[in-house]
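Justification of computing resources. Each target in the renewal requires a structure prediction run like the one illustrated here; the chain below, 399 residues long, is used simply to show the kind of job we budget for.
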Amino acid sequence: MNSVLSGIRIVEQGTFITGPCTGMMLADLGADVIKVESPSGDPYRSYQGGQFSPHFQAYNRNKRSIVLDMNAAGDRQMFDRLVASADIYIQNFRPGTAERLGAGAQRLQQLNPQLIYCSISGFGSSGPYVDRPSYDSVAQALSGFLSVVVDPDRPRFLGPALADAITGIYAAYGVLGALFERTRTQRGRLVEVSMLEAMAHFAVEPFAAFFALNQIPKSSDRPRLAQAYILRTADDGLIAIHLSSLEKFWRGLTSALESAALAADERFSTRQGRIEHFEALGAELDALFCRHPMAHWADRLNANDVPFAPINRIDQVVNDPQVKHLDLIVPVESAHEGRHAVRPAVRFDSKHAEAVRTAPLLDEHGLAIRTAMNEGADWPGADPLQQTQSNKLTGSTSA
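Resulting structure tokens:
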């Protein structure tokens, strides 16, 4: 694990993706995250049955878990004690829920004036949509993001939960800003982010185009302007190319294709012409790329300095030479399931995380946390595995 947030204490009361993703981003940087769960656990645990779905594992690594029943006086007291010595609290309840549980910002910041309180919602804490439920697809749609990525002739959702994860990343970004400010003010902050706000900001480029040109952006605009194509090869592979705005990439492509006719076609002689005849150029490229297999085109495009990549399946990514060189796939220590994971993307001083810690079982650390708190600790020490990892980072040894 990276250690830039070593010593930062976080209580996360997150479910599904947005809150847990925020906690994971900070845990990946070395923060000590205690995930507080209800007796039934984070619902994402049972997303595909059982209590440890791959979906839950994805966003809950490097954390500890304790079950607290917020309706039980003893557990509420334990929760308060954890919050009182925490640096950060994270929740993604629907507006009003935290207050009903006794975990609202006003109450917790009275317990701990230095607490950075992170509240994540679908649409914000007030307004006409405040009581509506929100999930990933809803936020993608309302924010305008879907309108610039979906084919209007065949509209359908594709891919992973982008709005959920992106909102979690924005929330972590806000928390880090507040954490830095606290070094000067010694005061906490209420950090709020909604899925609607996060996804609208994520689509900042089409909004800028709308305000500048007074034209409503379409999903075809970006690939057309970027001259980006997905093409099928003779062995049924899919390859992506991106010509951008540099003329040298067009010259490189025509050289790689060895097509004098394409190079001489006046429709495509300028970038503006290629933009105006985007579909026609795509048809010409389809006809050429289907003549040879992926390996042929990879060699030709690489030799001519054309930006390209095969559209890899996940199993192909794991075995990609550059991925292996970057050590992007690392072991999961003490894994309950799933022995490998994608490591945190950020390096510090050219060093990256060499492993991640497994996502916790429900209440896996509950007994240890309760015991430490009952013995008078203001914050329960890390479990032995985490302490071992910390020692490796600092070069220290335990007595």
